């Protein structure tokens, strides 16, 4: 009987795990492989400044490099299929700092811990004989890690977004915010499209091309910038801050802390050099104890090294 996962997770075996499921595609990110670069601005506001002293909330308009993506490591993933979408951003802040982030269109991540995520991936590696994952391995991993459930249930019940611009994106991980007075609190963030979410009816999915998201976004931004509210959800004492498979209760205070405007869809070169390591944070925002954060920082660098090397 093989251990689940086969060994403790680390930056390298997590990327190997992604390659095991999706294959190795030259030049492509090992997750969020299908995607498109974009550019825009972020303007933070006073409500944000009351929560964090980060210069993102100074009120100045900040240039932002963005990447929208389809979850997983398949660069040809069908865009009319179920699954999570991603919104990654690099804020170039007025004080010279950067803030990097990669968010998903679900309030939860796949697994609570790097070991759990490695187990998830290992169980889905196709068997060389059948070219399909072994259902017994998937069941064994799910039995050991019940935390896989929230995201899977979310994806099953949530429709396919009609646009990269018409779905909410969540940080899923919690972060620690400190304001100018030294007050510290935990928060998660969301990007909420100001024109609302839009999903494709299940019976209309087949009428959509497998490749429509980048052109759809290009069409929108050529008319008018696409805007998202940047919303901070504030933790209360006792809320879980180290487990991205646990959403906080809906009644937690939400504060609109800024506005993201997507102004253009850009060439691949504009964002391919960036790995959106979520621990590149400005003064005034720190990581939480969530073990996914450090694992992400390492894996993103490994993936970037592999994709830029070949
Ligand atoms: C241990 C957990 C995780 C691992 C091992 C992992 C791994 C990766 C890797 C290897 C990449 C490609 C990086 C690159 O080549 O630049 C990636 C991209 C991405 N990840 Fe994760 N990830 C994890 C957790 C998360 C979480 C919690 C979120 C969000 C809530 C997330 C959202 C994304 C997004 C949106 C991208 C695409 C970024 C882009 O457009 O460049 N990941 N992930």
Automatic annotation (TrEMBL):
GO terms for biological process: hydrogen peroxide catabolic process; response to hydrogen peroxide. Pfam families: Catalase. Keywords: Heme, Iron, Metal-binding, Oxidoreductase, Peroxidase, Signal. Its EC number is 1.11.1.-. Heme binds at residue 300. The keyword Heme applies. One of its GO terms (cellular component) is cytoplasm. Residues 1-310 form the Catalase core domain. Its cofactor is heme. One of its GO terms (molecular function) is catalase activity. It is an enzyme of class 1 (oxidoreductase). Decomposes hydrogen peroxide into water and oxygen; serves to protect cells from the toxic effects of hydrogen peroxide. PANTHER family: CATALASE. Belongs to the catalase family. This is Catalase-related peroxidase. It comes from Limnobacter thiooxidans.
